[in-house]
Amino acid sequence: MQLKDMEPVVKKFYTGLEEGIYWARQCPECGAVEFPPHLACNACGYHKTDWVQVSGHGHLIDFTLPGPQNDKPYLKEYGKYAYGAVDIDEGSQYTYVIYGITKKKAPEIRAKLKAGETVGVHAKVIDRPGYKELTFELDD
């Protein structure tokens, strides 16, 4: 889908990625942050949320390496990756592509997660035809 064809809430999010800004929506009732943004709050159901910027930093919750059926060649252009759940610093969880996780590193990363260690990640924006895509990458 092209940026010009997107709904307003989606367009603002993707325009932000073009500008290096990470937009989320925050509920004025309970304070929950929706990232990626939603118009209503998923935590309390309140019907309205407000635009806020988030840092693009967080930590890895869990991950899985791609198999042949869900491997995406265009993602490989940017490096080795996995699919993983991220909790951003502002408190919202979602599933993203995570760069820096390889088959060789996976056991070490999984051991850190099982031991309760924080595995930091940061936003990494990649180019797609007509728009930018938000992914994350392991902190060094």
State the helical fraction: 10-25%
Distance between the ends: 33 Å
Domain count, please report it: 2
Average residue pLDDT: 91
Rg result: 16 Å
The biggest sheet amounts to: 5 strands, mixed, barrel
CATH domain topology of the largest domain: OB fold (Dihydrolipoamide Acetyltransferase, E2P)
Q: Report the β-strand fraction as a percent range.
A: 35-45%
Number of strands: 8
H-E order: HEEEEHEEHEE
Residue windows where pLDDT falls under 50 for at least 5 positions: none
Query: How is the quaternary structure best described?
Result: single chain
Cα shape: globular
Alpha plus pi helix count: 3
Describe the structure.
This protein has 3 helices and 8 strands. By secondary structure, the chain is α+β, with helices and mostly antiparallel strands. The chain has 2 domains: 54 residues, no CATH class; 86 residues, OB fold (Dihydrolipoamide Acetyltransferase, E2P) (Beta Barrel). The strands form 2 sheets. Strands 4-5-6-8-7 form a 5-stranded mixed barrel. A 3-stranded antiparallel sheet has the order 2-1-3. It is globular, with a radius of gyration of 16 Å.
Question: What order do the helices and strands come in, and which of them pair?
Answer:
Blueprint: H1 8-19, E1 22-26, E2 33-34, E3 50-54, E4 57-64, H2 73-76, E5 81-88, E6 93-99, H3 106-114, E7 120-128, E8 131-138
Protein name: DUF35 domain-containing protein
InterPro entries: NA-bd_OB-fold, Thioester_dehydratase-like
Organism: Collinsella aerofaciens
